[in-house]
Amino acid sequence: MNLDTWLPVLVVLSSLVTGLAIFLLGEEQNRARTVLNLAGAIVKLVFVGIMLWGVVHGHIYEARATVLPGLDLVLAADALAMLFVTLSAVLWLLTTIYAIGYLEGSPNRSRFFGFFSLCVTSTMGIAFAGNLLTFFVFYEMLTLTTYPLVVHRGTDASLAAGRTYLIYTLFGGAILLVAIVWLSALAGPVEFTQGGALTHVDDQHRGALIAIFALLIGGLGVKAALVPLHGWLPVAMVAPAPVSALLHAVAVVKAGAFGIIRVVYDLFGSDLCAELHLTKPLAVLAAVTILYASVRALYQDDLKRRLAYSTVSQVSYITLGVALGGPLASIGGLVHLVHQGVMKITLFFCAGNLAETLGLRRVSEMNGAAQRMPLTMAAFSLGALGMIGVPPLAGFVTKWYLGLGSLEVDEGWVLPVLAASTLLNAAYFLPILHAAYFKPPPTTGAKEAPRGRVETALSLLIPTLVTGVISLGAGLFAGTVVSPLEWARLIAEREFRP
Amino acid sequence: MSLASGQLDGAALLVAIILPFLLALAGLARPLRRMTLSLCSWAALPALALGMLGGPALTVDLPWLFLGVHLGLDAPGHMFLIWTALLWTFIGLFARFALTDDAGRVRFLRFYLASMTGSLGIIFAQDVATFSLFFALMTFAAYGLIVHEGTEAARRAGRLYLALAVVGEALLLEAALLTASRAGGGEFYSLHLGMATAPDRHVIVALVLIGVGIKIGLVPLHVWLPPAYSLAPNAASAVLSGTCLMTGLLGFLRLLPIAELPASRWGLMCAIGGLAGIFYVVAMGLTQENPKTLLGYATISQSGILAVGLGVAMAAPTARPVVIASLLLFVLLSSPALAALYMGVHIAAASQGAAWSRRLIGSGLALAALALAGASPMSHAIVATGIFTQTPELSPWADWLRWSIQFAAVGTTLLMGRFLILTWPHGRARDGRSAPPLGVGIWLPWAVILILMVSTAFLAAFLITFDRMSPALWPALIGGSLWPVAAGTLLVASAWGVARRFGFAAPQPIPAGDLLLVAEWLIRIGQRGWRTYVIDLLPLRPSGIVSRWHEVEAGPWLTSVLIKAERQLGRWLTVGFVFLLVALCLSMAMVFP
Predict the structure, then answer these.
(1) Complex-level ipTM
(2) Rounded distance, CA A214 to CA A221, Å?
(3) How far, in Å, CA of A354 to CA of A351, rounded?
(4) Is the pLDDT of residue B511 over 80?
(5) Mind listing the pLDDT tens digit for each residue in A82-109?
């Protein structure tokens, strides 16, 4: 029992313990709660930092517990897991700071932050899950721990949204369970292995494998918001801004996309997927999602709803990259896991800032917003231009690798999809920027919260600016060794090693 | 030693490119605003110095930046850099003083500086991704310049510009991806070789033609240009039109492997399209009454000449060196001419002083107009007479090119004649508006750009040509470059005389953006058809599907069960502790197996 075994468990525990301790705190013990929250997030970051170093240098981190014979719970860290874990750990810290400022003075904060931590715990578990069973356990935990966050406000609208959310995700979970049981019956206990874990399955079970793949993608596709399973996401945007940020950038949607990556790379393996002709339909489904959701986003006046449809579209870039196969497309898909997270969390932070400070919730109310909140709108611009794919922002790097990758595997039809998505993204983001920068602000403004020296509370502004700068830096410094791109290259290199 | 000087070069290059952008950012901070304002016109000076002093082998690789940034300066790059930097410097000076009373001056200058970095960076970029980076910066920053006035019309023009520009960006990205993928790398020198043999090079050529064509306003992609340039402030129109030809030529040279590409049908299409475009926009431009709109059409006609040259180069491999050389000369001459014309509109409107000063301004305008009209035949004649006579196997293209360019130049001369009639400073305030004062900060930059233009012409004519050609060829050269301008002038003069004598009903001006009207009409018809024949006949509306799905999931039975379950779940104490218990057991089991 050495530190290498402990570390993944410690990362998971760091937020679990935080969450549990917060539940035990009284509602008015704000200072203690803040200290706990930040301490948990920072301790986790330290652990994650150590593990990042270790994974680069070939350490193997694995913790295993046998529940029943042949039924193990495994937490293991490979390069792919670390990509997701690092993203979650960094964004968790920032979202916590943001949420502390956002919820200042509102009721039920212990409940909120308790579940908030548990939600991150589940995400960490999903990332480290070494086999399907562990993955499933944490995946369902995620569903249950996010529900109280979605309905946090307790209004009719949020309860309805929570209901929709539960129906979709529990349904998805059930399908996932069926697939897992079937696969276990067929192939025995399988663990995620680089290059695929199902090579030993007999050829006569091809049909079954295809069906299992479809079920797995169907189950995961609910959280990954693949069309037509995406309906819950735009509804769930009634949640408070930090929750939306978490849902869209770190936890739920990403868990689905991450699951798809695991299934394609480490369960079936890209070779087997290609052999069973599974990747092409998945890629087409992702392309359809990208375009359909972008078109829907055009028609939303509610800012957060527009952002929600944009998430549906952008997360499918990850699926697209993974489904296309080949090193370059995979790099594009994997790196978008981080890029989309950082850009979208920026946009949701900004939407929260605008709503809290100026009372702006609709795109049609955004005239002159840049004059009233220049820093927030600067961050918003970085996120929005990045989503469109304007160089040198993070989104361009994704598109570049997806485009090159699609040509590498002779799937040229992806290029027009990327171009159309660029145009649609421009069509729903640029009018917002135009209104904010070039139109005069309304003379009779909506109710504005009192402000200090800066445009809004520092706890809201600083995380927004940090994520905005990261979405610029991830693209501008993509060539450095510490960039997400470099890490995605490392994963692809290990996955496609000849 | 060599390492140190290499690093020094790298630093100098980077500073030259990003200094304007950094100034634009500094302008966001209130305390630094005054400094930005006073430094903005000098931001291009490091680039200018680099263009004049930098060695021929100036390259910098920055693998850690973006997707690996490769910067460098080749022979045409040197020329473009000097001209571009001069234009940005002096138009910047002009902008500072011309916008003195404008409340949004700082914002304008910020966008000006950002565009400047884009425009300079394009010249240095030596790989596809870096090129796209600076191209995009210029595209988006130019939007801020175009919509500066903030009127509804300006916003409409800006929207149109941005819509087309984003389409152009998307197409260029596709072209860049295709080339980079086929060539196995994004650097221009490897790219050209790889692309010349790529099976889908036709797609790439089409994408680049449309993508860059939108930027420089090739007919029929030009519809954004006349409204945008006529509604932007004069300084913006001057700098955008002054740099757009250079950017366009550079874009074509960098993204299309003209030297390596086998002869293709694209060439003929491009040349004929360009030529037809020139005559079309001359006709459109002649009906205009706003001199700035007319200049927009003149800009498009110059882009047309670029297209003709490019087409010939693509179609006739033997003529390539000649044509490209003549296009370089042409661009270097027309760019300052266009800038001077736009600045001249402002100056002519402002001149209410003595008759001699008005006459001086009028001559300046006439000089610029003459240069613009003569640029194309002159640059072509210089190179053509110089080289074709030395290479006896004249390609069949040479004559065709010469004649088409000369006839196009007649058209441009007509446009310029009409422009002079419209703008000639009579000392009366136009539109009843009070004219802005005509300070030294306004006329001096104009004079400098006029000098740049004239010296370019002399440089081309004397240093390059007369120095190297036998005197026997001089008459052909002079005749070839002068007759179109002379014929055009004669036509304008006689038309003007007739109109003065007998009166003349000016035709109704065609709205700026001409083809746009047709496009809008088609779109209206299309929308009506789509509604009548598609949407109304669908059994289920798209929104209908969604609402039915919601009905299913919120059925009455399901609802009541769910509401109960939800209330239970809503008690966080229950959930929290159940979850806690399970999670703790699991993690304990994992740590102590």
Answers:
(1) 0.90
(2) 10
(3) 5
(4) no
(5) 999 999 999 999 999 999 999 888 888 8
How far apart CA B301 and CA A208 sit, in angstroms, is: 65
Cβ atoms < 10 Å from Cβ of B382 = 23
In a 10 Å sphere around its CB, with 0-12 CB exposed, 13-18 middle and 19+ buried, how is residue A239 labelled?
buried
Residue type, B215: K
- In angstroms, the CA A149 to CA A162 distance is 9
3-state secondary structure at position A455: coil
Among B106, B562, B579, B580, the strongest candidate for a mutation testing the A interface, having the largest count of A CBs within 10 A, is: B579
The string of DSSP letters for B280-299 reads HHHHHHHT--SHHHHHHHHH
SS3 (DSSP) at B163 = helix
Q: Are the beta carbons of A474 and A488 closer than 8 angstroms?
A: no
Spatial distance between the Cα atoms of A388 and B133, rounded to a whole number of angstroms: 13
d(CA A209, CA A206): 5
Q: Which amino acid is at B346?
A: H
**A401 contacts A393 by C-beta, under 8 angstroms:** no
* Among A127, A151, A116, A103, residue whose Cα is nearest residue A16: A116
Taking the CA of residue A202 and the nearest CA in chain B, the distance in Å comes to 33
Q: Measure CB to CB from residue A63 to each of B562, B579, B590 and give the nearest one.
A: B590
A93 Cβ contact partners less than 8 Å away, ≥ 6 residues apart: A38, A41, A42, A45
Q: Between the CA atoms of B108, B109, B111 and B113, what dihedral angle is there, to the nearest 10 degrees? A: 170
Backbone φ and ψ of B592, nearest 5° = -115, 80
B61: enclosing H helix or E strand: strand B58-62
d(CA B15, CA B434): 41
Contact B9, B65 (CB under 8 A): no
- Extended strands (E) in B131-186: none
**Cα–Cα dist A168/A238, whole Å:** 16
Instruction: Write the pLDDT tens digit of every residue in B144-198.
Output: 999 998 888 888 888 889 989 999 999 999 988 888 887 776 677 667 767 767 7
User: Which amino acid would we find at residue B1?
Assistant: M
Could you give the CA distance from residue B477 to residue B590 in angstroms, rounded to a whole number?
90
Strands B69-73 vs A71-77: parallel, antiparallel or unpaired: unpaired
Q: Which of B62, B67, B589 sits opposite A397 (nearest CB)?
A: B67
Which one of A22, A136, A166, A400 would you mutate to disrupt binding with B, by most B Cβ within 10 Å of its Cβ? A400
The answer to whether the predicted template modeling score (pTM) of the entire model surpasses 0.90 is no
Six token digits for residue B134:
């600076």
Record: contact A415-B174, CB cut-off 8 A: yes
State whether A64 and B562 contact (CB < 8 Å): no
Burial of B121 (0-12, 13-18, 19+ CB in 10 A): buried
Query: Per the CB < 8 Å rule, is A403 touching B173?
Result: yes
